[in-house]
Amino acid sequence: MAMKRAGVSAIRALCSSPNLTRRVHSTAGSKKIVGVFYKANEYAELNPNFVGTVERGLGIRDWLESQGHQYVVTDDKEGSDCELEKHLSDLHVLITTPFHPAYVTAERIKKAKNLQLLLTAGIGSDHIDLKAAAEAGLTVAEVTGSNVVSVAEDELMRILILVRNFLPGYHQVINGDWNVAGIAHRAYDLEGKTVGTVGAGRIGRLLLQRLKPFNCNLLYHDRIKIDPELEVQTGAKFEEDLDVMLPKCDIIVLNTPLTEKTRGMLDKERISKLKKGVLIVNNARGALVDTQAVADACTSGHIGGYSGDVWFPQPAPKDHPWRYMPNQAMTPHISGTTIDAQLRYAAGTKDMLDRYFKGEEFPLQNYIVKEGVLAPQYR
Amino acid sequence: MAMKRAGVSAIRALCSSPNLTRRVHSTAGSKKIVGVFYKANEYAELNPNFVGTVERGLGIRDWLESQGHQYVVTDDKEGSDCELEKHLSDLHVLITTPFHPAYVTAERIKKAKNLQLLLTAGIGSDHIDLKAAAEAGLTVAEVTGSNVVSVAEDELMRILILVRNFLPGYHQVINGDWNVAGIAHRAYDLEGKTVGTVGAGRIGRLLLQRLKPFNCNLLYHDRIKIDPELEVQTGAKFEEDLDVMLPKCDIIVLNTPLTEKTRGMLDKERISKLKKGVLIVNNARGALVDTQAVADACTSGHIGGYSGDVWFPQPAPKDHPWRYMPNQAMTPHISGTTIDAQLRYAAGTKDMLDRYFKGEEFPLQNYIVKEGVLAPQYR
Fold it and tell me: Is A46 within 8 Å of A339 (Cβ atoms)?
C-alpha cells in the first residue's frame, strides 16, 4: 500500500523501471475521491440496487462524507475539458470501471500529482497505463472475483446463442416471418463440440464448470495447469501450445487479460488457421483481437459467429465494423455489471477504501500494481 | 404394433373408447408413405446434413424405394386442396414433425382409410388428435429422446437471455447506440435465483443437470418424483403442488406435454399469483399458456420476460401478439430441429419404419398410441 513507504524502494529495485517518481503518500486526513461511472438517467429510479452508476456512486457518498472526505462522481471522461480532467490536479483516489472506462494515460497520471490509488470497480484495469502507474509509484487494485460468475454465465449464454443460431430466429419473429429452414440449416447442439478457452483463470474455470454437463470436449490453454482436482471434475484438457489448440476448436472463448503480450493475439494469420465456421466468444477485451480481421472473417464465413461485450474503444463508435458484420451477437460492455455484480463490486470498493483510510493491506489478489510494482501476469 | 392383431382387442378392452373402428392392417407388401416437413429452399445445399426437410426427406428415399415402397414428401399441409389431402385416401404411413406440424384431425383420420401408422419425426404428437387415432386403432409413435438434449440446451440459453437482459444490448449495437444503464438496470446473474420446472421428464431432467453448476435454487413439479440419485445430484426439490411452487420462482420453465389436462395451465389467474418480474421459458407447447394473458402480463411488466419457440398455431400468424409484446425472446419452432437432432430423428424414424416393415415392436418408450391404446400420460 501507498502508506508503507519504507519497503517501497526495496520492492522497486525488483521492478524494471529505473526512473520511479517518488510520491509522498499519506493515508491520513481528508481525501478527494473521484468516481467515473456510467449514467443511469431515466433508469436510475427503476431499481434500488442500481448502485454502479453516477446517480448512486456505489452507494458510498454518505459514508465517505461522514468521514470528512470529498466525493465527486461523473461520467464525463473524454477530452481535455471533461469533468475528470478538472479534478486530476488534486484528487487522491480515482475509481473507474471497465464498463465506461476512463482511460488513465501516462499524461493524466503526470497531471494527477496527489494521486495515490486507482481502484477499478470490477475486473480488468487495462484502461489504465499500468507501466506509467507503476513508474509513478501508485497502487492499482481491482475487486477481484466480484463479477467472475457474472461474466462466466454470460459467456455460456453467448456460446449457446451462436451454436444454436438464435438471432436469425428472433429476427424472423419481429419481422413477421416464419422460416425454420433459415435457422435450422446452421443450428447445432453444443453437446459433442470442442470448446477451448484461452485462459483458465477465475472466469475460465467457472466457465469450464458450467460447460461440464453439456458433454463437450473441453480444452484450455494457460501459462500453468489448473488444479488437478478441477481438471478431473471438468474433464478439461490442458493445451500447452495455443496454436495447437486453436485449430481443434469448434468454439473459442477468450478469457485472458489484455497485456502487451496478448494484444492482438487473434490476428488475421491465426484466424486463417481456425476451423471454417468457428464460433468465437470474447468477453475479455476487444483489443485481444484484430478488429478488422474479425469483421472480414465474419463476412467471408470463416468465422461462423462472433459474440462478446468488449470493444475498443468503449463506447464503440457508431461506425465500428462489429456493429454491422454478419453473424454477430454483440452487446455493449455489460456482462460484469449485472445488478448482483454491482452490489459485489460496490462492497469490494468500499472495503478497499476503508482499508486505505486505515493504512491496511488489501486482499492480495486485488493488486494489479502494488506501490509501483506490477503484478506478475502484467509484466 | 399394427401387425399383432390377435392381441389388439384384448388391449382395446382396457381403453376408454367403446367404439373402436377395427381396421385391417398388414405390414406386408408395398406401402405408401407420406412425409410432411418444412422446406429448405435456398438453404438446402448449404449443409449436407440438413435432412429434416422436404428436399432431403430424412434421407430415406433410396432406402424406401429400393424396397418397393412409395414415398411422397411435401410441406403443403393446410386446407382441403393441399398436397397432404390428396394422399390421405391411400397412404399407409404418415410422418410428421412438430416444427411444421400437419394437424391430423379426426376428419383426416376418417378419410385415411388405409392409414396404420403415424410417426412423429421428433418429440410431441399433440398436432395429432390422439383420441381419434386411438379410436381408429392406429399406432402413433415418436422418436423419443431424439432431441431432448437439443431442447434442454435451448431452454438454458433462453433462461440466460432473459435473466441477463441480452436483447436490449444487442438492439443497441445494431442501432448504433451505447447505453449500459439501459441494459444493466434489469440484468441479473442466474446464480442464486429460484428456477422451477413444470415437468421433470427427459427434457426437464437434462435441464436440471445443466443448471446444477449455476448454483440456483432448483425446484420441480411432476406427477412423480425423479430418481433419488438425480435429486441428490442436481439438488432439485420436489414440489407436489404446482400452485405452491409457481409463486416461489424467479424463473419458470415449462417441460410438460400438451394434454387436455395441461392445456391453458398458465392462465390469467395463475399468472397473477406469480412473482412480479417472473421470467418464463416455454419450449414445450404454446397452448400450455393463455396467449393473450401472457402478452398482457408482459406489457404490464408482471412477467419480466418470456422466451420460447412454441406457438399456437404454427406457423404463427403475422399478427400473433407474442411477436410484438415487450421483453419477448421468441423464435419459430426450432429448438428440437438442430442439425444434430435431425440426424437423430431421421435415424429413429428409419428404424421404426424398418421394424414396421418387418412386423417388429418399436422401442416401448416411443409409443404414444399403441394399436389403439393411449400411453398413460395422455389418458
Answer: no
